[in-house]
Amino acid sequence: MCGIVAYIGQKEAYPIIVKGLKRLEYRGYDSAGVALLHNGDLNLYKKQGKVANLEEFTEGKNILGNAGIGHTRWATHGRPSDENAHPHSSTNGDIALIHNGIIENYASIKSELKSKGYSFKSDTDTEVLTILIEDIINSEGVSPAEALKFALKQVIGAYAIVLLSKSNPDQLVAARKSSPLVIGIGKEGDFYCASDATPIIEYTKKVVYLEDEEIAILDRNAGLKLYSLDDVAKTPYIQKLALKLEAIEKGGYDHFMLKEIHEQPRSIKDCVRGRLNASEGWVSLGGIKDYEDKIIKAQRIILIACGTSWHAALVAEYLIEDLARINVEVEYASEFRYRNPIINENDIVIAISQSGETADTLAALELAKSKGATILGICNVVGSSISRITDAGSYTHAGPEIGVASTKAFTAQVTVLSLMALSLAKKKGTISDSKFRVMLTELEAIPQKVQQILDKNDEIKFISEQYKDASNALYLGRGNSFPVALEGALKLKEISYIHAEGYPAAEMKHGPIALITEEMPVFVIATQGPSYEKVVSNIQEVSARKGKIIAIVTEGDKVVRNIADHVIEIPEVNEHLVPLLATIPFQLLSYHIAVMRDCNVDQPRNLAKSVTVE
Ligand code: G6P
User: Fold this and answer.
1) What is the DSSP letter of 178?
2) Which of 32, 403, 511, 532 is the most exposed place for a label (fewest CB within 10 A)?
3) Residue 457 Cα to ligand 1 middle (Å)
4) For the sheet containing 95-103, what is the strand order?
5) Is 449 part of any domain?
């Protein structure tokens, strides 16, 4: 939530910052703004809406300066507006600040500052922090960096911050707690700073990920200096970025979401590479290998996640319980952390998160850790906060996911979780050799089967056309297809704003059936498997009420074809792996419907990809 970019060095800052903000727009797009230092002046340009609005606003203006900060906002305190847009400046105009996070005690600080005579132009918590820093500079006579340190000791909450000041024009000061911040080290005193590495990657591969409660001073003459909040100097740990520029560009597709949907044969292949060999009959997740003994002896595994990642966790519950016979509980991170959960050192808590930055998931993990549990992570973003605080984990290797609606990250999560379930089952002896071998072969064949479904794009687009004007939709599935139904419904509502609900097919009788009319599309997963006949009965129930049925079936199915309005065939696959295939048509359906409804597919309203606030 909220994207931060900053630059100091020899080059013009504005183009670097604006390009970076566009890369970070997935983190929020309620407003965008920049502040630049030029010839001793600190100039701010801010506009409600997307970065494009800011560009329109600045067109024709000669925006100069080789030190600057920029921000793209996902509103928390204060509605989206020009005034509430970052950067915020001090009342004397000497400092400007960008912030991602929430200052929870901003109200009390604000009233204290008001009593000292300060006035405020916005409703934001960030302006309060900016003026608090100004007040400390005024009263203590310290530098902006020192004042920031003092201020951060007073605030409660989460932050990634970059500060620019007139008095120290050769420096940017950055700090973080709970919200991510990466520093890029360029040539000849060039420094970059951003919420993730995507704005930095084309300038340098040398980065430092800031840790919680660290302050960095990026000085174009004196270099990079790192301190703890208590002023202890630290040595920066410089890492080399593996990210490639092509991975964060659209590559000829109309939208990132479409590109990412089509990348899935490759991303799933990347996810299993080196971890699975069907002909030799082994599976190995290096990242968690050392913890497998502990996991199979554990009384239970608790999977915590939010959004789409929570749906992947639900799929994993079926996989791990059935194959490895270990009790699995799936929790929304936001609920788990606030209900005094019973956890002890025998528990294994696994966080699933694409970004590795989701505030609730991070906090839930920290809670589990404090109670002695072993904490593991399944993340996509390398070097993310969750991947760094966990005892061990496995990356999904899906590559950067930029579309706000998660697609390839979901299938990569399910793939890693399938590998994990198989590995645990083998170690525990709960799977026969023959079944193990069959499943490895099936898993290895998934990328090619995903491609076969993607090749049906035109057919799926045609079906989308029929339902683009629906107001409501129902998604039904049983067993491990129930989470796929939830995910299908989430995709549709996120990007096309059609109200959609996912339901266990049999539960339909207990409520949603009342909604079924001729107008209601009902998307059903009716692939071959133990509950096939039961799902067919549920489809009959929908049909009897004249609902429109769009069914995902196994190739060659004749029964459902006779009842449904449309069928989408997917290749035959082991029942445990159905979610990896059945989810693909739903992604394409949502995509096409959203495009036909003229919705902004990659940046749906009110959403953000990385939710770094509670
Ligand atoms: C946001 C995103 C979703 C994502 C969820 C959890 O809501 O829009 O796509 O599933 O956060 O994010 P995570 O990065 O933890 O998987």
Assistant:
1) B
2) 511
3) 25
4) 88-89, 95-103, 157-165, 171-177, 214-219, 223-228, 233-234
5) no
Q: Is the dihedral of CA 11, 14, 17, 18 positive or negative?
A: negative
Q: Beta strand pairing status for 566-570 and 548-554?
A: parallel
pLDDT band at 27 (very low <50, low <70, confident <90, very high): confident
CA 495 to ligand 1 centroid distance, Å: 14
Mean predicted confidence (pLDDT) in 501-507: 94
Q: Quote the DSSP letter at residue 481.
A: G
Q: Are residues 225 and 274 in the same domain?
A: no
Are 564 and 522 within 8 A, CB to CB?
no
Length of the chain: 614
* Domain end among 412, 444, 476: 444
Which among 400, 415, 444 is the end of a domain? Answer: 444
Average pLDDT estimate for 393-406:
93
**Encoded amino acid at 545, one letter:** R
State the pLDDT at residue 28. Answer: 87
What's the pLDDT band for 498 if we cut at 50, 70, 90?
very high
Residues 240 and 256 in one domain: no
Q: Given this model, what pLDDT does residue 440 score? A: 97
Query: Same domain, yes or no, for 383 and 495?
Result: no
Active site residue 599: no
**pLDDT at 76 (0 to 100):** 82
Residue nearest to atom 7 of ligand 1 (CA): 307
* Peptide bond connecting 199 to the previous residue in cis, omega within 30 degrees of 0: no
CA 365 remoteness from chain centre = 16
User: Do 241 and 263 fall into the same domain?
Assistant: no
Q: Residue 486: its pLDDT value, please? A: 98
Same domain, 186 and 127: yes
Q: Which H or E run contains 420?
A: helix 408-428
Report residues whose beta carbon is within 6 angstroms of any ligand 1 atom. 306-309, 353-355, 358, 361, 404, 406, 607, 609-611
Same-domain status, 570 and 550: yes
| pTM, to two decimals | 0.83
pLDDT for 512: 87
What is the per-residue pLDDT for 397? 92
- pLDDT tens sequence across 209-264: 999 999 999 999 999 999 998 899 999 999 998 888 878 888 889 999 999 999 99
Structural domain contains residue 295? yes
Expressed as residue numbers, the domain containing 500 is: 455-607
Residue 152 lies in a domain: yes
- Give the model confidence (pLDDT) of 139-180 as tens digits: 999 999 999 999 999 999 989 999 999 999 999 999 999 888
Q: Which of 76-85, 113-122, 483-492 has the lowest mean pLDDT?
A: 76-85
H or E segment and range at residue 495: helix 482-496
Please give the Cα distance from 389 to 394 (Å, whole number). Answer: 13
- Identify which of 609, 612, 613 to mutate to test ligand 1's pocket (most ligand atoms within 8 A of the CB): 609
Cα separation of 535 and 186, whole Å?
A: 58
Backbone angles phi, psi at 529, to 5 degrees: 165, -175
User: In the prediction, which pLDDT does 242 show?
Assistant: 83
CA atoms of 35 and 42, how far apart (whole Å): 7
